[in-house]
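Researcher: Predict the fold of YqaJ viral recombinase domain-containing protein.
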Amino acid sequence: MLVKCSCCGEGIVEVKCPWSARERYLADLANETNSRVVENGGILELKSSHRYFYQVQMEVFVWQVDYCDFVLWNHKEIHVQRVAADKQFLLPLVPAAERFFRKVFLPELVGQVFTRRNENRSPAVNGCVSPDGARSKLGARPTQVEKLDQYCSCKGPEQGKTIACDGPRSPIIWYHFQCVGLKREPKAK
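Model: Structure tokens for YqaJ viral recombinase domain-containing protein follow.
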């Protein structure tokens, strides 16, 4: 949730309601083996090595805000911690997150590349490789790096019906109809 106030600026709120702690005190979580929190001078703090911390830092980065109010809640109590943006922590992680978004999340979101039934999966899942003759949106031959990032998530041959993605930040310009789940061309607005 995005929040804004005159004294603190813009931030986000992340709420976690751990089922495993539904009937316990939150301070008891600090004693668990893979705990998400540590107790520091009687105060609970989100562990910087826990995946929740990584999630919070990435959300702060993506939303371009200064902080996240991390809320840990159960039936007995509530804990709120303000987690400041930590660019030193996050910057080394950004390239991997961008690769994951481009190569996994976006293709799945647009074309269900990984969750489609086997016989309907795109060539990417079956191991096809991008051809040398792939062309960019303007018809010019792309560089080797552009070939990997601009022609369909399946990296298959430049053939059949395709559709362009006009999003300014999309690394892939052309998609095969089959790879994005289209049977016919969408109607223009």
